[in-house]
Amino acid sequence: MVFKLVLLGFYLVLFLGLPALVLQRGFKAKGWIQNGSIAQLTLFGLGFHLPSLILYRLAATPLGLPVWPYFVLPLGFLVWAFLETKAGHWAPKAELKAWGLSLLNAQTFKRALFFGLGLVMIIAAVKTYSFQPIEDYYQDEHQRMSIAHFIKLAYPPPEFHVYAPDKSYRYYNFSELLVATISQFTGISVANLYFRFLLGFNWTLIWIGFWGMSHAKKNHSPGLTFLLFAFFFFIQGAGGQQKIWHFNFHQNSFALACVLLSFFGLLRFYHHRQFNDYLWAIAVGSLAIGTKLVAFVPLAVAIPWIGLGAFLKGWISFRRFLVAGILAACLSGGWYFGVVRNYSPEAQPKLAYEYEPSLKNHWMLRESIRKMNLVPNQLFNYLVQASVHRFGDPLYWFWTPVFLNLEYVILLLAAVFLGRQKRAGPLGAVFWVLVLGCVASLEIFSLFMFDKSGGSLAYFLFFGSWGFCALAAYAFLQRFGGEDSRLGMGLVLILAFLSLNHYALTDSQNFQPLTNHWHHSTLEMQAFNTIKHQTNPQDWALHNYYRTNQIWSFASLAERRAIITSYYPGAVNQDPLYYGTIRPQADRFFNDQMSKEELASFLKHYPAKAVMALRKMGSGPDLSGLGFKKVMENNELVLWIKEEISPEG
Fold first, then answer.
1. Which residues contact 144 (CB under 8 A, 6 or more apart)?
2. Which of 91, 120, 208, 396 is least enclosed, having the fewest CB within 10 Å?
3. What are the TM regions of this chain, as residue ranges (predicted)?
4. pLDDT for the residue 1
């Protein structure tokens, strides 16, 4: 295992660190960027690695190429680095020594210390909140983790939740692609990478993006930066139980990391007028589309307006404006239509205006208000009643987002009205456009509803809120993060104390991961392992978990494609036509209502190499004589494995 962990370190260095260093070196030589930072290196590394990996995998699948040719890509960067060093154009040892000596400088050491404290906090949070037995993780997380298993077979992954051999599984998968590729490089299991590594990696990227945003203009107080990040991390707003749970989800946290790194690039572009920053912000921001589409809403608002504003102000030429527009359209459109979009007509939820003062139909907004009111909040109710008296409308669409993010609204108001504005300068148009994008996401949540799968509307709230909170912290730091940041620290600590005492300390219990509503027994886990060892990765299996709602862990734990799985109405990653066709036949199969001829025909049409039946949901038929061998039988389940027929037979 130690060797595999060393390989994991090599992967991060070779595929993220090395390209970032080489690109930064080349851009600095051309004068395209100023002095770099860890956030800028991360922007370059992620912005190069993941798009190049996606494009390679998309090309490799139809060509039948394996993944390993992509693994030789770092050789090109290594050769370039060697030639540059040999020619005397680059002295990495001298630069590393200079960086080490710079730590002797009090200010540099202080920045490194507080950045390191952020990493320590993340490691402690992961260790405290993230680890549990793999089979106990929430079903939604199992569904997403299983994507990584089947990306190893093809990309986009083949369908694995219902028998559709010619269909690909269309859903968000960029974080799972990264996990699958690291697994193939290191030999570490997908499950261990997904549940033991990915969340800490994502939170680290969030911290880097937050740090980069905070110092996009110039270096500010590292102590206040760390304090604001801890505030951002742990104080998620009144009624934030669901928000905290989703902050722990692997796709959501990776999407948020991409958004904050993109915010950093856009803010840096505003402050330094480096067109390169704008392009890389577009590249990394577009990755949110393939990770969690709704996360891209603030950027979808901001990126075009920032580009247009930069052109009108003369920061960039029309040609560069056109290049940026083409890049944004190609990446966002390519990721969505080429990888994510499920083309089934039944998997296309639509937004419809749904606001009325009584909230009779808008159950999502009503539920948010109910959760927020569990925290005693007389001011909210007073303002709602005052709005009814003055306007004839409670204005829930306005007051609810304000009070769900109240601490951060206070931070922003303090930055605007109490901060040292003349010395710090204006917050800038780009900042306010980004805020507008986040507010747009919050208002979509408040004023609209999906016509199906309505619960997904909450993502507009989560990502709009996280983006707004990070921007409010950025604004506060610009105003209070100078040489003397004691006032800013005092205000944040007072606000943190009030919030923790009011609700946030209790809410912190929700950092414990959601658990699986179905407890997989030891015998079930043995059956999954038997299926893994006695069948091949591309094989199909038939099980009867589909008879229970929202059980998707078979594919992640057995690592085999399922003939049928639980169907969730309105899900964008499921086509009801396939499920509706197979379900009646599967029910007859597990109810033992088929004749031998029907069983043979069913198993020929749906070529399962394993059949697993939980007795409490139907033990199914006797498959002896049909080419299957019973390998497990107990009071919980029956497991049949297809016998291999020798060529002579």
1. 172, 175, 176, 194, 249, 250, 251
2. 120
3. 34-56, 63-83, 112-129, 193-211, 223-241, 253-272, 278-306, 318-337, 396-418, 430-450, 456-477, 489-505
4. 75
Q: Is pLDDT of 524 > 80?
A: yes
Expressed in angstroms, the distance from the first to the final Cα of the chain is 42
505 to each of 226, 289, 409, 428, how far by Cα in Å?
19, 33, 20, 35
Give the tokens for residue 541: 């299996």
The number of beta carbons lying within 10 Å of the beta carbon of residue 323 is 16
545, 566 contact by CB (below 8 A): yes
For 502-520, what is the mean pLDDT? Answer: 84
pLDDT-above-90 percentage for the chain = 68
Pair 520, 614: CB distance under 8 Å: no
pLDDT band for position 420 (50/70/90)?
low
Q: Mean of the pLDDT values across residues 330-334?
A: 96
In the chain, domain spans: 2-265+273-288, 346-510, 522-642
Distance CA 260, CA 174 (A): 16
What is the arithmetic mean of pLDDT over 494-511? 89
- The reported pTM is 0.95
3-state secondary structure of 564: strand
Separation between Cα atoms, residue 495 and residue 507, nearest integer Å? 16
